[in-house]
């Protein structure tokens, strides 16, 4: 549902450890957008999920869904240009779906989750731009290790690889917004002003040509 008076919304998409929060923070400071970060440190289910995925998968995904709905409501109410650290579309297409496909979430819970998601989806405004940080598993594991969240250190490489596969499918098939794909393995936008400037140039290119995609094959 597109609204003529809605604020400009940019969503930063990517796997765990891809650099979404860092890029969202830098872009918000540079562009003057309001940042909206994913509920991680205050998430009451995240540590339990990594300790026992089958037990807590449904709880975690419904919690993320509820916080994402609240974030969208607050963004629309604020009327300010905003940057989202991950979008509601990723929750269903990647994280909940991966839990189901790998047997972490059972059929009953997954179908219940989808009913909730599909019931609220028509009220969700697609972002004006999705920036996808495409990162390999070695890059993800290195960044996860460096940021030092204890409950993330035991995330299996296979789990990250499965999420990466779903992200590639999601980005290829997502047609509700223009997409900017950035090679996160090769960009250090936290420490390199050159790399950060490159990202700003790519965003400016997308503004002028919203049909352009960065990287062949997308």
| Strand neighbour order, sheet with most strands | 2-3-1-4-5
- In quaternary terms, these chains amount to single chain
Assign an overall shape: globular
Provide a count of the helices.
8
**Overall pLDDT level:** 86
- Report the count of strand segments: 5
The share of residues in extended strands comes to 5-15%
Low-confidence stretches: 213-218
Strand-pairing-aware structural class = alpha/beta
How many domains, in number, for the residues? 1
Describe this structure in words.
It contains eight helices and five strands; from the N terminus they run E-H-E-H-H-E-H-H-E-H-H-E-H. By secondary structure, it is an alpha/beta fold. The protein has a single domain (9-208), classed as P-loop containing nucleotide triphosphate hydrolases (Rossmann fold), CATH 3.40.50. A five-stranded parallel sheet has the order 2-3-1-4-5, sandwiched between helices. Helix 4 (88-101) crosses helix 7. It starts with 8 loop residues before the first strand and ends in a 10-residue tail after the last helix.
Compose a concise summary of this entry.
This protein is of the alpha/beta class and 218 residues long.
List keywords for this structure.
5-stranded parallel sheet, alpha/beta, single chain, Rossmann fold, 218 residues, 5 strands
């Amino acid at each position: 549902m597109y609204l003529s008076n809605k604020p400009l919304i940019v969503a930063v998409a990517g796997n765990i450890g891809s650099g979404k929060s860092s890029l969202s923070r830098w872009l918000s400071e540079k562009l003057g957008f309001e940042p909206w970060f994913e509920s991680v440190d205050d998430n009451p289910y995240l540590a339990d999920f990594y300790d026992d995925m089958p037990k807590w998968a449904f709880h975690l995904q419904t919690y993320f869904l509820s916080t994402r709905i609240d974030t969208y409501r607050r963004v629309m109410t604020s009327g300010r240009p905003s940057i989202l650290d991950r979008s509601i579309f990723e929750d269903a297409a990647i994280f909940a779906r991966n839990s189901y496909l790998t047997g972490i979430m059972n059929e009953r819970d997954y179908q219940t989750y989808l009913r909730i998601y599909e019931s609220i989806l028509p009220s969700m405004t697609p972002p004006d731009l999705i920036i996808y940080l495409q990162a390999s598993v070695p890059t993800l594991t290195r960044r996860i290790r460096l940021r030092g969240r204890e409950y993330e250190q035991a995330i299996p490489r296979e789990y990250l690889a499965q999420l990466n596969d779903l992200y590639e499918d999601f980005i290829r098939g997502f047609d509700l917004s223009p997409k900017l794909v950035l090679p996160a393995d090769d960009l250090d936008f936290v420490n390199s002003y050159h790399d950060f400037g490159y990202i700003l140039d790519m965003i400016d290119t997308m503004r002028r040509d919203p049909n352009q995609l960065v990287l062949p094959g997308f």
